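Please fill in the sequence for the structure shown.

STRUCTURE ENCODING:
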């Protein structure tokens, strides 16, 4: 099966599935159930997030009584297309493919993100799953900026939080010391997409309203309403590491444009980079500062494009290089 044939067939399958949320779930599930027992459990985190999107109503088709979000639908479409194309090429090549993305049957992936799904199918692991999944998600973000900018500010803020969460869970599985410092030994278990613990990081129900659109809310309302545990995670553990996390993701996916989604250590996808105070204020509580210190992130303050620690704190131990993605 050639590149054009696989890509066209995948696009047709996604167009058909886009007519209803149930068909989206079926197509997403088929990828894992058809891939065999060793890969089936990797769908746990993705399918849980998909159900959250459906519960919010963001994936409702345009013809529904309550239409969903063009942006959320487009990002989910990209994820489904990449996986479906990769599965078609994998099946055509009997699962064997040399370097370069070309299968023995002559097919070549239409995008780097599709190649990464092919790598996951050939050698499933937490790292290869995150690399493929997050590469598709980032591709969806990058190609749909205009749709994102048409959303309400609280929605765009949520998009950034959702992204930093999935990038962080990838680091948990592949670079645990980057993600948790001296507690990195538990990172691979906590971030394994096959385990229920990953829901702690990817479940946004505890952090944001489960409705769409977020009319009548401001970004400040969203930050203020976030529960203690999500606040601890987002602002105490993840936020001080954002520059390293985005650098790690850019290198892992081979996508340098990831670094354009953060500015001065602050996420800025379709969101004003000129408002870093929102992120600083959210992380100003005692518990969030303690979480940063305990996990080795230290107290940070944003300054231009660099993050600097308080000089009174002892220097932290050097973490593993954020530019190497590995299993083990």
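FILLED IN BY: designer on duty
SEQUENCE:
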């Amino acid at each position: 099966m050639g590149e054009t044939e696989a890509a066209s067939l995948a696009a047709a399958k996604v167009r058909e599935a886009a007519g209803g949320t149930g068909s989206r779930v079926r197509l997403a599930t088929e990828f894992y159930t058809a891939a065999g027992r060793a890969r089936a459990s990797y769908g746990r985190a993705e399918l849980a997030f998909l159900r959250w999107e459906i519960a919010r109503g963001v994936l409702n088709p345009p013809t529904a009584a309550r239409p969903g979000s063009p942006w959320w639908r487009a990002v989910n479409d990209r994820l489904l297309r990449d996986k479906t194309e990769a599965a078609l090429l994998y099946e055509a090549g009997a699962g064997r493919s040399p370097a370069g993305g070309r299968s023995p049957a002559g097919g070549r992936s239409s995008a780097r993100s599709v190649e990464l799904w092919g790598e996951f199918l050939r050698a499933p692991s937490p790292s290869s799953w995150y690399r493929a999944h997050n590469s598709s998600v980032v591709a969806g973000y990058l190609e749909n900026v205009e749709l994102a900018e048409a959303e309400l500010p609280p929605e765009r803020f949520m998009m950034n939080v959702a992204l930093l969460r999935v990038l962080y869970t990838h680091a948990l599985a592949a670079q645990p010391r980057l993600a948790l410092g001296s507690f990195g030994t538990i990172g691979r278990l906590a971030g394994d997409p096959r385990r229920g613990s990953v829901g702690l990081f990817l479940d946004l129900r505890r952090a944001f309203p489960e409705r769409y659109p977020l009319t009548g809310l401001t970004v400040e309302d969203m930050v203020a309403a976030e529960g203690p545990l999500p606040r601890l995670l987002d602002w105490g553990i993840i936020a001080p590491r954002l520059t390293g996390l985005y650098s790690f993701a850019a290198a892992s996916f081979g996508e340098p444009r990831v670094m354009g989604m953060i500015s001065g250590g602050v996420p800025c996808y379709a969101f004003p980079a000129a408002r870093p105070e929102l992120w600083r204020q959210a992380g100003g509580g005692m518990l969030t500062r303690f979480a940063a210190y305990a996990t080795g992130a230290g107290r940070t303050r944003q300054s231009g494009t660099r993050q600097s620690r308080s000089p009174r704190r002892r220097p932290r131990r050097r973490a593993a290089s954020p530019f190497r993605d590995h299993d083990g």
